Amino acid sequence: MQLKNKILIAYYSMTSHTRRVAELIQNAVGGELASIRTKEPYPSDYEAMVEQGRREVNEGFLPVLNEFPVDIDACHMIFLGTPVWWYSIAPTMKSFLKNHDLRGKIIYPFVTNEGWAGHALQDFATNLSGGCVKSGMNVKFSGDILITKEVQIRNWAKEAVKDIF
């Protein structure tokens, strides 16, 4: 099995920030890139989407997801990315973690935000059924401007791969 087949970069992205970081990681270390998607899309109106997201986080709602397009069993290392919603991981990521058996996988979480990550990185371990959660990365944006330096993201990803393989 080739190294790239052992690495998965799975992400949920609402505004494309998390997707952008996932693509940077893939460019740095290879692997397969896959988006986590809900069956029911969020409202296109930003304010309505924010209100729905707030309610979902507060109520512990887990949205139904589309079938994931990658065979997770074939992956050894998984980079998992999500935006921070109310200091936590997005409900979509929480649903993904609850619905997939990640035992035996090495997980490197990353979160994107425009303020404070809160407890989002810790939420990966809290919501995971198995798997070994390693040191995560907090990636900051200001609007569409990436504040965290791209080289920091690439170096974090390369160190993760070096540590495992």
Summarize, please.
With 165 residues, the protein is an alpha/beta fold.
How does this model look, in words?
With 165 residues, the protein is α/β, with parallel strands linked by helices. Helix content is 38%, strand content 23%. It has 6 helices and 8 strands. Strands 1, 2, 3, 4, 5, 6, 7 and 8 form an 8-stranded mixed β-sheet that branches. The longest helix has 15 residues. The protein is globular, with a radius of gyration of 15 Å. The N terminus is likely disordered.
Write the layout of secondary structure elements.
Layout: H1 3-6, E1 7-11, H2 17-29, E2 32-35, H3 46-59, E3 77-85, E4 88-89, H4 91-99, E5 106-113, H5 120-127, E6 132-133, E7 137-142, E8 145-146, H6 150-164
Parallel strand pairs: 1-2, 1-3, 3-5, 5-6, 5-7
Antiparallel strand pairs: 3-4, 7-8
Keywords:
6 helices; 8 strands; alpha/beta; disordered N terminus; Flavoprotein-like_sf; eight-stranded mixed β-sheet
The major beta sheet can be summarized as:
8 strands, mixed
**What's the overall geometry?**
globular
Kindly provide the name of the CATH class: Alpha Beta
β-sheet strand percentage: 15-25%
Fraction of residues in helix: 25-40%
- What is the rounded distance between the termini? 13 Å
CATH architecture: 3-Layer(aba) Sandwich
| Rg over alpha carbons | 15 Å
CATH topology: Rossmann fold
Q: Give the rounded overall mean pLDDT.
A: 93
Number of strands: 8
- The total number of structural domains is 1
Q: What structural category arises from helix and sheet content?
A: alpha/beta
Number of helices: 6
